[in-house]
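If you are new to this repository, start here. Below is one unmodified record pulled from the training split, so you can see the exact layout before writing a loader.
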Amino acid sequence: MIRGGGAKMITSTKLSVVASILIIVSLIAYVYVEHAQVEETFAIQYGEDELRVLLGESDRFGLEKESWTDAGYLVINKPSNYAWYIKGVGQSLSGKILTIASTHDRTGQQLSAFSSDITSLDRPVGDLDFYSSVEMTFPKKGVWSLDVFVDDRSLGTIKVNARDHIKDRSRHYHDLRRELRYGK
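And here is the target side for that same chain:
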């Protein structure tokens, strides 16, 4: 037995149970953060009968979710072109540069900035009237913060979750259970 200050006594068994619970809660929190849906989306009207789902700030910019891979999420180590829409705010952005600075939230790893020219749209997507296609690759799974800039002006930051490509959903479920159980 461990005797603390005062009249309270804690048995080593109770201490082991508390430590085990803390470890399990920590593992669950880790797995939740690694596999969480951090993307905040909004839908905007495009034409008469089409909606586009974007991630970002509806009055400033958006990353189109349909431009993601067929899997419906960002896949690590797979270069892809991503469609970005930007609001001009009363000015022409044609010919300016859209830059995306990426930082992995857990490790702090920063990638070289992704950049592309901005062009005007013939038909605005909601209030967003400019477009840029940016090729990006995420080398590590987890949550990434994407800082969005037009030239040197910051538009804001969004978070995305990059994952391994999942071919077999049952295998993915098994891997998650193994992570929860063994922390691997």
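Two things worth knowing about this chain: The chain has two helices and 13 strands. Helices lie at 12-35, 169-182.
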